[in-house]
Amino acid sequence: MDKVLIIDDSDFDRKMIKKAIAFKDDSLEFTELSSGKSVAALIALETPKIAIIDIRMPGMDGFEVLDVIRSNPDLCDLPVLMVSGSEQPEDREMATAHGASGYFVKPPSAADYFSLGRDIYDQYLCGTSS
Amino acid sequence: MIDTLNSILDTHPDLICRMDKELNFTYANEAAATFFLMSKDALIGTHLFLRSEEKQHEVIKSVLGNICPESPSVTSLQRIDRPAGPQYVLFTIIGLYSDENVLQGYQSVGRDVTSKTLLEHQVAAQTKALDAVHVELRSVLDTVPSLIWYKDDKNKILRLNQAAAASMGMTVEEVEGKNTYDLFGEAAKDYHDADLSVFNSGKAIRGLVEPFTPDSGEQLWVQSDKIPFTDGEDGPRILVVSTDITELKEQEATLKSINKNLDDFASLASHDLQAPLRKIGISAELMQLELGDALPAEATAYFDDIAAGVNHMRQLIKCFLKFMRASPEGVDLGPVNLNNVLRQVANNEQGHLDETGGSLILPDAEIYVRGDNALLAQVFTNLVSNAIKYRSERRLVEIEITAETEKQYWVISVRDNGLGIDPSFADQVFDLFGRAKPYSEIEGSGVGLALCRRIITLHGGTIELIETGNAGSCFQVKLFRARRPNDG
């Protein structure tokens, strides 16, 4: 069963991302973390199909979490999407520089969230179920 | 024999004469007679004091008093005032003594040294004046706060002022004439290289900002002008004038840090405000989507109110962020054709004007100002859209933009016939979120005019509300005039 890892300090945003992707496929398994501190240990145990990481988090920020993931040679191809609460041009550049697969701004409405969930599913999860 | 000798002396250019011991002339050559303004024959037999000024008599007596058999010769420079100017004659007077050392008379040889003496006086006066200039220059050099050095192309410091010496922890005397390599070792190479590039190019470098570490060890910042020149045949020279701008650099760094903090704060505030807003909006939307059928009909209206409130708040945050980010670094000031800007604003607002049946008149004069196209468009869009938004329902909207020059400014007036602003609120219209209270029921962010003032201030200009009342308002914007750029 494909796993989706969501790391975000906001319960609400984790819930919405999960809801939006699960709306397309309720058989997916979701792992939620409110910080990136334990990401290395977790990923070593169970490799997700995709990781979605919030950029601004207290303590370890999203780019540091991404660096930890990319420092593992087994995870260099893992799709990682970076998420920001508001549009910041420098965030998009930093995401690319740190080796993220994509970047998106948290949608302002539920309809947009579902549309984003559909796009993520189609691009990274559709037809890859194992 | 004496006649033969006298005939030789007669035409000698020096003044030659003989006197008896009572100082009566017994011989005078042509030059001496001319000196005494008489003929030779008339002079002979007369007394010296009859042929000289009275004030000279004591001097002559004193000079002759020094003559004795042991030291029979004296030399004396005499100044004689002539109508054409002073004449200087160097007299050598020899006492003529008998074998028994009895004074018999005097022989005098005088040489006109007027040209030489005047030249000496002139040189002395010029030397004195030069000394005064030197003292004055030194005083000026030592009074200015700048650090000043003269150096040669071998990195030798020829002259410097006290401030420069103090910055090196030394006195002027300790540094002048020293080679910078002897004072600073290898560290002097950087300064020397920079100087050599000036020597080689022959062009002055001005406003060079460079770090400078004086003897105290604390790093300072100086702004230097390096000017090459040649000093006669002594070879190339360089004048280095440095001004300590450490305080300015520190202020600049503080300002940058404050701006960065403000920017960070704006981003953070925007991010932190967006998060709960998104939560409210999305939750309300989900509630409507998922429980829509189960909710009473009037609940839909409440959800619409929530959505409108969330949108309004989102706009406010956007405007706030825009306001905070309008910083001097982001402003690119160049010549802007304001007529084009105003035409663009008019086009954008035409729809709103048509809806209200209003009119907008633009200025005829060609206006070029120093500014940023996009930011100025934002200012005038704000003013025009405010004029439409705060219109009076009793009359059609009339907006007139006029322009006139005032010294180095273009003064642009935007006059409307709208509601006007209560004079007691007029001071607050440019405050952030400082909307004119009586009209607070009209939708607006309260950021627009604050942003206008911030933008115009960044342009070095001013924006003011100069008139307001029941008949409307007039905003005045002053911007620096610019030259029309060359076509092509």
TrEMBL record, chain A:
Q: Per the database record, which ranges form the Response regulatory domain?
A: 3-121
Protein's organism: Algimonas arctica
A single GO BP: phosphorelay signal transduction system
Q: Which domain of life is it from?
A: Bacteria
Question: What keyword terms does UniProt attach to this protein?
Answer: Phosphoprotein
Recorded hits in InterPro entries, A to Z, give: Bact_response_regulator, CheY-like_superfamily, Sig_transdc_resp-reg_receiver
Q: Which SUPFAM superfamilies match?
A: CheY-like (SSF52172)
Q: What is this protein called?
A: Response regulator
Could you tell me which SMART domains the record lists for this protein? REC (SM00448)
Report the residues modified as 4-aspartylphosphate: D54
